[in-house]
Amino acid sequence: MSTNPTAEQIERIVADSQHLTGEVVMGNLLKFKTRADGDAGGSGRESYARYGELAVRKVTERGGKVLWMGVPDQVFIGDEAANDWDAVILVAYPSRQAFLDMVSDPEYRQGHGDREGGVERMALIAMTPAPGFAALGD
Questions:
Q1: I want to staple 114 with a disulfide (CB 3.0 to 4.6 A). Which of 23, 35, 50, 77 is the partner?
Q2: What is the number of structural domains in the chain?
Q3: Residue 42 located in a structural domain
Q4: Would residue 53 count as lying in a domain?
Q5: Cβ-Cβ contacts under 8 Å for 14 (sequence gap 6 or more)
């Protein structure tokens, strides 16, 4: 399974960045490798943590923030296979363009070796606030 977007996925988010304005939250679903690939070694989780240090800095530089990170531990309703993720991370960006600027940053891209070396599979889902729903605390 790929840890990088397809050309079609890149084209769609670029097109969306031109007409969808405002905050975007990226939902990350992650399954780590037992042992990381690459020179730095360690577990897949450790490899991803190295990438995560750089990623959080780059997110923050663009006005974004990590909203939440946790471990799925129980499916209450639905497919039990949904429990087969090691981590869920929600990251907010002020816009899709801010996200695209970050993923184009050469320094950010250098950290991909640790991301790809540590992740067995992943899903990254762009989410826009739904009309009519208030944010927590509103």
A1: 50
A2: 1
A3: yes
A4: yes
A5: 100
